[in-house]
Automatic annotation (TrEMBL):
Domain named Disease resistance protein winged helix: residues: 787-856
Xref: InterPro entries: Apaf_helical, Disease_R_plants, LRR_dom_sf, LRR_R13L4/SHOC2-like, NB-ARC, P-loop_NTPase, R1A-like_N, RX-like_CC
Residue ranges occupied by any Disease resistance R13L4/SHOC-2-like LRR domain in the UniProt entry: 905-1225
Segments forming domain NB-ARC: 537-704
Gene name linked to the record: LOC113698147
Subcellular location: Cytoplasm; Membrane
Membrane topology of this protein: Peripheral membrane protein
Top-rank lineage group of the source organism: Eukaryota
Annotated keywords: ATP-binding, Coiled coil, Cytoplasm, Hypersensitive response, Leucine-rich repeat, Nucleotide-binding, Plant defense, Repeat
Main location: cytoplasm
Annotated organism of origin: Coffea arabica (Arabian coffee)
Name recorded for this polypeptide: Late blight resistance protein homolog R1A-3
Lineage: Eukaryota, Viridiplantae, Streptophyta, Embryophyta, Tracheophyta
Residues that span the membrane, as ranges: none
Length: 1241
């Protein structure tokens, strides 16, 4: 590469290309090349300025000054050419002597190059040189200024420091400002002033970037950092009044200019969008800087922020923008200028103390114009025809609407500062109550009557229309459509009255089969432990293939259709004693259709090692693969890969699996016959025989073989109709388990008429199961379609979503969560939902669907307009205006484009780190932003969502919640994921009366409640679940808890004490009469007073004497006790007579000094499970536990051999007593560190 022979303008590009070649081709790994690349870019930008700038009309600029400028440019180019020649020669020498390479020559040339540039900065491009250039020269031409800014931006983009990234973003704002001014036809002195300012900012940014290369101490770097932030402030929030005046003059000229061609604006609308994009951060920064903000001003600023977000999305949406008239398009350009004028007129002091009158009027006018534009683009619900209303649980949807209308009709206007048209809403409410009663009367007749069905549909459509119109009024939209809605509802009421009178003779018609089928569930909730009937021959064949044959690594595949029981059979094989004794290691993972190498490796490692999954999740694939290889090396292993759809999945992990020629095997299950090696044979799983189907049906319905005499014939008939497919048998059992015995004949007829001998018959069975659900359960089941296939869904999160969506019916004397739990049990009883993880207190902790049921739910949800899943960019395959939108796996969709198509969406669920835009539809009720991370601050846009009931965000370093959360007056669930520090709540939190769940998923963080003037604050009487952080020395816990009387689940973490401990050091919880689950962390040397209703208690790092545990032992209802990470200090736990009368589960984990445990036969009379993990000094488990008749499981990990021996002795005592149920699990001592319990949502 002959740099010396190149043209002077291209020497920089050639130098950068050569440095890039060195970095990629030669095995040099030093940082000098990267630093040199950055410095060459800085010099390139300076040279661009020197060659393009022109003299001003200033007599002080002499001819020799012009020559000096040109000489400096030539010297920069000569420096690059000369030093690159030396570097080229060094590299050539290296390549010639490649057999004995020596880096010294190259490193020496790099050092000389860097020192030469550093010296050049000190002598030729210093601050005085820059000041001289700015005084005597300018670029002036907009294109030249933009080119120079672009060059500086390329330089800043290579800087690793955060400050330079911020500087780059602000320079991009200036670039967009210049482009906007040119687009809007700004000319003359206003444009010149802006260009000069942009030029000065860019060259100063370049000068600051050059300082980071010079060897400076911390003090110099701190000074540079302050200069960078000062420059950033001058760019977008100018502190200099003259600069601010320049900005406002340019914006005023841009607003008034009529010289710009509207076609140019349409073609270059992205320039306006970019400008507004760069305005948005300045608003958020102003809001974040305000610690005390008046609510009206805060709301106005939030509305401005939301309005600019909306316009940005609109400008980037080609079809929507194209539909606007020319006047509207021009108005958007004017609004961009007005918004900037308002923003540049604001300051933190103004926002906190009140806006100046002129600014206040300008902001008021701007918000009106923004609302007008939005109304023109998303004209609210002018008709019903454009909406795809859901057809699931229509009466339940009507009830949810009526409840909301009753709240609005009775609300105090002074509370929410929203002027509702109450008289009209009252009339609509009365008419809808009448129509609701009419729908109940015709529910059993409409399916056979076309006229009634049509009237039903019209009533539901108008009810949904009314909901949208009224909810739009709540967020500030027009009232005019309410009159039309009220009129249509009145007309329907008249029609319904006339129709009812004409059809009264049919009111005694027979009820639907669904009603007669409903009986009380006979089964408790099962764990995912499926019954396997028959197939013993299949099991023997597969075990033989796994344990015999070639010593080389080989494959065994189980192939069959969905629902045939492939996974259940494979699990039975893997748990067979012959397999467990033959293989040293057994690992498994679920592949499914969506997978990654990282997820497969993590699953396999987690199934082998007992380490925390979080440890593996944070590792890269390059680290996981060798770790798995090392664990498997020299071991005979069996790897079970479940639900494989393509060979690519195997190819991702095969290099991590060693072949030691010792008989290791890979077991696959798949719906597809895959050829893993040329001679591999697939084992095709057969269907059940009629006899096996009958036995399976009997076990699933009655828990044992054999039908009652009256059901033998019809039961055998139903089993035969299942065609040997286990899933069909299980689903049919779910129907029969909830069907009166005298109605089994009707089930048999339904199966006969609906299931046909083709590929769809299983789906038809699912359809039958779905149709037999009550209306309340149908939306709960379809909601699973929002989650990934094979995903284990935390049950609490699922309940919170169901409740926020309005699916859970209010039941007298029951918590919403308890009703939701009954719903889930019903779905499990019907074999539609599987419990994948149990709680220690009983009930489901996580659940999932069989993939075939999930597939059915996805199709049914789409068919009934229940939920729209985004699969790709601009996905419009669903209804025109869906109520619920979910993005499950389309990473980086830019989904804001789709959201503009769905302005009235009520639920938005994201599961990946998508680019949101960031604009949110104002009628949202449910918002889960998935893995999108917000650093230090919450997104201010969410606080305009007045209807929001569920809010889940992933955050890092958020220290406080803004007072604007008070706008979310209907919020029920607020979930913070990943926030590793305590979070201070505002005083306004006490005004959100609907709050039910305040939770953080990070186990050592919680919410800090404000305690100032607590006596005057209202209570949160619906709060059910809370992550609380408290200072035990402040004596404020009791005051806070009296405001939260109905807490059922509480996790309490200690914050740093601000004062010395006073009083007796007791935290009192006995005022919480409904508290069932309590976790206490890090309250060293603090005692507690517990409520008598407590059922579950977890203590971590509290370090109390063992004598204090007697207080816990007296709790009459305690069922679960977990003692983790030294909650007590001392070597001996001596139990007293009669303690823990109802305890079922006891966990002891990481008790470092604990040695001796003394108990008597009357302790733990109901204990079912004992877990002992990493109690390294513990000597033995008390032998008296051998007398406990209810004991089912003892699990020991990381303990002395004497502990394992004592457990085996207890097992033998249980066997001697006739109890063979007790299972023991003993893992190798010192095998792993205790994993942190996963904190579910």
């Amino acid at each position: 590469m002959e740099i010396s022979c190149s043209s002077s303008r291209s020497c920089f590009e050639l130098a950068l290309d050569y440095l890039g070649w060195i970095n990629k081709t030669l095995p040099y790994r030093g940082s000098a090349i990267r630093e040199l690349e950055k410095e060459v870019r800085v010099l390139q930008s300076f040279d661009l300025y020197l060659t393009k700038c022109r003299r001003r009309n200033d007599e002080t600029c002499l001819e020799q000054d012009e020559e000096e400028k040109d000489v400096t440019s030539s010297r920069i180019q000569d420096l690059i050419i000369r030093r690159m020649e030396g570097l080229e020669f060094a590299c050539s020498e290296y390549l010639i002597h490649s057999r004995s390479p020596d880096w010294a020559h190259i490193e020496g040339e790099l050092t000389i190059f860097l020192e030469a540039i550093e010296l050049f900065f000190e002598t030729d491009i210093n601050e005085s040189c820059i000041n001289f250039l700015l005084d005597c020269y300018w670029l002036r031409d907009p294109e030249l200024v933009i080119d120079f800014i672009d060059s500086v931006l390329k330089t800043l983009a290579k800087m690793n420091r955060f400050h330079f990234k911020c500087l780059g973003k602000k320079l991009m704002f200036l670039k967009s400002f210049v482009l906007l001014a040119v687009l809007r036809g700004v000319k003359g002195q206003q444009l010149i002033d802006l260009l000069i300012h942009a030029e000065v900012m860019a060259i100063n940014a370049l000068l600051l970037s050059s300082t980071c290369y010079c060897p400076t101490d911390n003090e110099v770097w701190d000074q540079t950092t302050r200069q960078i932030y000062r420059l950033i402030d001058e760019m977008i929030n100018p502190s200099d009044p003259q600069v601010r005046e320049t900005y406002i003059h340019v914006l005023t000229a841009a607003k008034l200019s009529r010289s710009s061609d509207i076609s140019d604006l349409v073609k270059n609308r992205h320039l306006i969008a970019d400008f507004m994009d760069h305005l948005v951060p300045s608003i958020t920064q102003l809001l974040k800087s305000c610690t005390i903000t008046l609510a009206p001003i805060m709301n106005q600023m939030l509305e401005l922020l939301e309005g600019l977000r909306f316009l940005t999305v609109l400008l980037r949406h080609q079809e929507k923008f194209k539909e606007l008239c020319l006047e509207m398009k021009n108005l958007i350009g004017v609004v961009a200028c007005d918004a900037a004028v308002v923003i540049f007129s604001l300051s933190v002091n103004q926002i906190q103390k009140g806006l100046a009158k002129e600014t206040d009027l300008a902001l008021f006018h701007l918000l009106k114009v923004l609302k007008f534009i939005r109304a023109e683009v998303t004209d609210p619900v002018t008709s019903v025809s454009g909406f795809g209303f859901p057809r699931t649980n229509e009466l339940g949807s009507m009830d949810f609407l009526l409840e909301n209308l009753k709240e609005l009709e009775s609300c105090n206007e002074a509370d929410d500062s929203i002027a509702f048209p109450k008289d009209q809403i009252r009339t609509v409410l009365e008419d809808l109550v009448f129509l609701r009663s009419f729908l109940v009367k015709i529910a059993d007749q409409r399916n056979g009557n076309g006229k009634l069905q049509a009237l039903w549909s019209r009533i539901m459509e108008v009810a949904h229309w009314a909901e949208f119109v009224i909810d739009s009024i709540v967020v500030g939209d027009k009232h005019e459509y309410l009159r039309r809605v009220a009129r249509d509802i009145q007309l329907l009421r008249t029609e319904a009255r006339e129709t009812y009178h004409s059809t009264r003779h049919d009111c005694g018609a027979q009820r639907t089969n669904q009603k007669s089928f409903r009986i009380e569930s006979r089964r408790s909730i099962p764990v995912l432990n499926e019954v396997l009937v028959g197939l013993d021959d299949e099991i023997k064949t597969i075990i033989h293939s796994l344990t015999r044959g070639s010593k080389l690594l080989d494959f065994v595949s189980i192939v069959g259709m969905a629902g045939l029981g492939k996974t259940i059979l494979a699990n039975r094989v893997c748990n067979d004693p012959l397999i467990l004794s033959h293989f040293h290691i057994l690992a498994r993972c679920t592949v499914s259709q969506v997978y990654s190498m990282h997820s497969l490796l993590v699953q396999l490692l987690c199934s082998i090692s007992s380490r925390s999954p979080d440890e593996y999740l944070e590792m890269d694939e390059s680290d996981l693969a060798p770790k798995l290889f090392k664990l498997l090396k020299r071991n005979r292993y069996l790897i079970f890969l479940d639900d494989v759809w393509e060979i690519k999945a195997w190819n991702l992990v095969k290099s991590s699996l060693p072949d030691d020629a010792n008989g290791s095997r890979i077991l696959f299950t798949s719906r597809i016959q895959l050829q893993f090696k040329p001679d591999s044979m697939a084992h095709h799983l057969r269907h059940l025989t009629d006899e096996e189907s009958c036995k399976l049906l009997q076990k699933k319905v009655f828990g044992k073989e054999g039908f009652p005499p009256t059901l033998g014939k019809v039961g055998s008939q139903i089993a035969k109709l299942c065609r040997g497919l286990p899933l069909t048998v299980v689903l049919t059992a779910g129907i029969l388990a909830n069907t009166a015995e005298d109605c089994w004949e009707e089930v048999a007829k339904s199966l006969t008429s609906s299931i046909v001998l083709n590929d769809e018959y299983c789906m038809m069975t699912l359809e039958l199961s779905y149709n037999h659900l009550s209306d309340d359960l149908k939306p709960c089941l379809l909601y699973f379609s929002a989650f990934q296939e094979d995903e284990n869904i935390p049950v609490r999160r699922l309940f919170w979503l169901w409740i926020s969506e309005g699916f859970v019916r209010k039941t007298e004397g029951m918590r919403f969560e308890d009703v939701a739990d009954d719903y889930l049990k019903d779905l499990v009883d019907r074999s539609l939902v599987m419990v994948s993880e149990q709680r220690s207190m009983g009930g489901a902790k996580a659940c999932r669907l069989h993939d075939l049921v999930h597939e059915f739910c996805v199709k049914k949800a789409k068919e009934e307009n229940f939920l729209h899943v985004l699969h790709s960019r601009n996905d419009h395959t669903g209804p025109s205006n869906p109520l619920r939108v979910c993005d499950r796996n389309a990473r980086n969709l830019m989904i804001w484009e789709s959201l503009l198509e769905f302005p009235y969406v009520r639920s938005l669920l994201l599961f990946n780190e998508d680019d949101l835009g960031f604009w949110l539809p104002k009628l949202l009720r449910v918002l889960d932003l998935g893995e999108l991370v917000f650093h230090a601050y919450l997104p201010m846009e969410v606080f305009l969502l007045a209807h929001l009931r569920y809010l889940a965000l992933r955050t890092r370093g958020v220290k406080f919640i803004p007072a604007a959360i008070a706008n979310l007056s209907r919020l029920q669930t607020f979930l913070l994921r990943g926030n590793g520090i305590h979070c201070l709540l505002p005083k306004a939190i006490w005004n959100i009366k609907t709050l039910r769940h305040l939770w953080t998923t990070y186990p050592y963080a919680g919410f800090i409640f404000p305690v100032e003037n607590l006596e005057e604050c209202p209570g949160l009487f619906h709060l059910d679940t809370l992550s609380l952080a408290i200072d035990p020395s402040s004596q404020s816990l009791q005051k806070i808890l009296t405001k939260l009387p109905n807490i059922c689940r509480l996790r309490c973490t200690k914050t740093a004490s601000r004062e010395k401990c006073t009083g007796d050091g007791i935290l009192v919880f006995d005022c919480l009469s409904r508290l069932e689950s309590l976790t206490l962390r890090c309250f060293e040397s603090t005692r507690f007073k517990f409520p008598l209703n407590l059922k579950k208690l977890t203590l971590k790092q509290n370090e109390q004497p063992w004598s204090e545990i007697s207080t816990i032992g007296k709790l009459p209802k305690l069922e679960v006790l977990k003692l983790v990470d030294d909650p007590f200090f001392g070597k001996e736990w001596e139990m007293k007579q009669g303690e823990f009368p109802k305890l079922r589960v006891l966990k002891l984990s990481n008790l470092r000094d604990f040695r001796s445990w003394a108990a008597s036969s009357d302790n733990f009379p109901r204990l079912e499970k004992l877990i002992v993990h990493n109690c390294w000094m513990m000597e033995e488990v008390p032998s008296c536990l051998g007398e406990c008749p209810t004991l089912e499981m003892i699990e020991v990990r990381g303990c002395l051999e004497s502990v394992a021996s004592s457990v085996k002795q207890i097992q033998q005592e249980q066997i001697d007593m006739g109890n063979e149920v007790l299972k023991i699990l003993i893992e190798d001592p010192w095998s792993s560190s205790e994993e942190e319990e996963e904190e579910e949502e």
